[in-house]
Specification:
homodimer, about 300 residues, alpha+beta, seven-stranded mixed β-sheet, three-stranded antiparallel β-sheet, 9 helices, globular, DNA-binding
Chain lengths: ~300, ~300
DNA sequence: ACATTTCTCTGACTATAGTCAGAGAAATGG
DNA sequence: CCATTTCTCTGACTATAGTCAGAGAAATGT
């Protein structure tokens, strides 16, 4: 498996990487080309460019200066914040960017062109699959303080989604509590998933000593669905629970959340009688955890 | 389609490319690391390194010097040719290379690790498919003089394969002729496929004025099989024939060449009565060509 | 209102990658 | 055997990418 991944890495960086660079950098240094592209047709704040391209501020400033000297870009002060500067493409800059766009199309065409219709279809399908799974593998899941902006953003999006999807709407105050303190060790635990620095999902545990622990706040951002992230959060929560000696996990959920219910069933949770009086719940689930042998080389994920 | 390819290119060069470079270049410049890797455990001639990595001779020399100064490489004169120098890894060089190897494994592991077993399997399968088809799209098919070393190499390998596979062996002199002149315009035509500069297959036409043209010398190197190259050569030969006003193509083949027979049938050739007395043939095929509309954006390939 | 922080810019560096011309030694073709 | 070619090396360059410290202007917290 590892061999195939390495072989793929080699093949792809040689063929795609080299081709890309060769085309995109015609005449213009790669750094400038990337920047030109990233500014986009609508213009973009310099600080956003800096974080997106992960460049030193001095270096970025110089790159902008050189694009400005070539008449491709105009940098002006932002109205909202006098410190912030916004880079905009000039007419020539837009033309240059369109040229880059055309070249990217050319690269793609040059890859497809030698293939038969069948091969093209298969290649495109396999590329979509690789891309999807690479994105999935880029998602990072880490323990997070409930007060962290990422956690806040997740909770807010989660509540808002529930209030749209539940027949009766959703008011967190009426639901069983899962306050910041309850989701902070040692009382509980919050896992937040991030993708490219943006929050993409969450899941939490509430411990109750020797009694079963509870799963709370399971949510995946719409943009990150279809990546198996829900399953991954659940697996990681279970691993955390096992590491803390928990032997039984419980959760309740609303009938409107079909995907979640499917996930819990597929992950080995069985439906049990109501074990609390959560007003928004229609289903209660429980799973007995396998104490497990501890970590190995590649961690076993179901 | 083109959009998916571009999206893939972006995703993969970011994720895989960046990760690769970050790991491989720890402490050592990328150029040196690549060179160290390419020298290999058995050592390699400097001129081979130059062509493989496509480096300027002065630059390569300097890179070797720096690796030599670090005690990783020893460069010595070749016995066979006093001008040629051979680079060999020292014990420390081999250790360093093993470290690079380990890091490559780490990159691969870090991609697989966050995924579930199912996802890993699917990713690896999709990677294999993308890799295979990218290789297929890297193959170049060009008209070639029959005297060119690539053509010579193909013919030799082709004859040698026939003599192994035919029950009665194979002697080109007894077979119907297809000499250099007969495969050179305007009498005929030879297409040779190359992959990374190595010959990977061939196919030829013999024209006979208004009479049907003949297909000859269809061969794909063992290393390049499974890439759809046979089909591609056949399609390109047909396109060349159409461009020269040919309306019927003919060919004969031996019963030992099962894949070829399958290819001809799948490509629309129908078996006909023997139209010549080729002693090695068991099957004769013929196809009426569609005059076709000429070139478009992405050429239509069947 | 004042200290602190944020944002961008400039100056002064360094490292890596790469190019080009030419020299010297060895092999090769006629 | 002599001219030519092949192979490698050195010296002298250039370009790209990037780092780091600090300065000045604007916003923000208290």
């Amino acid at each position: 498996m590892i061999g195939q991944v390495r072989s793929f890495n080699r093949a792809v960086t040689q063929r795609v990487g080299a081709l890309n660079d060769a085309f995109l950098s015609r005449g213009r240094p790669l750094g400038q080309a990337r920047l030109l592209w990233e500014i986009g047709p609508a213009g973009r704040d310099v600080r956003l460019l800096r974080s997106r391209l992960d460049l030193d501020s001095g270096y970025l400033s110089r790159l902008l200066r050189s694009l400005e000297n070539d008449g491709l870009v105009a940098v002006e002060q932002s109205q909202a914040d006098g410190r912030v500067r916004t880079a905009r493409l000039t007419a020539r800059g837009r033309a240059e960017r369109a040229e880059l766009d055309r070249r990217s199309d050319e690269v793609a065409t040059s890859i497809l062109e030698p293939l038969s219709a069948r091969q093209r279809t298969r290649l495109v399908a396999a590329m979509a699959e690789v891309e999807r799974l690479l994105v999935a593998s880029t998602v990072q899941v880490t323990a997070c303080d409930p007060q962290h902006p990422h956690a806040r953003a997740c909770f807010q999006a989660y509540f808002s989604e529930l209030s749209h999807r539940f027949d009766a709407g959703f008011d967190p105050a009426r639901s069983i509590s899962a306050g910041d303190g309850e989701l902070t060790p040692p009382a509980g635990l919050l896992l937040v998933a991030t993708l490219h620095g943006e929050p993409a999902g969450c899941g939490a545990l509430k411990f109750h000593g020797d009694a079963p622990a509870e799963i709370k706040r399971m949510w995946v951002a719409p943009a990150a669905r279809g990546l198996g992230l829900g399953r991954r959060l659940l697996t990681d929560l279970e691993a955390q629970a096992v590491a803390r000696g928990v032997s039984i996990l419980r959760l309740e959920t609303n009938r409107a959340l079909g995907e979640a219910i499917g996930l819990y069933r597929a992950a080995g949770y069985r439906e049990v009688a109501a074990f609390n009086d959560e007003p928004y719940a229609h289903h209660w689930f429980e799973k007995t955890l396998d104490p497990g042998p501890g970590p190995a080389g590649l961690p076993a994920r179901p």
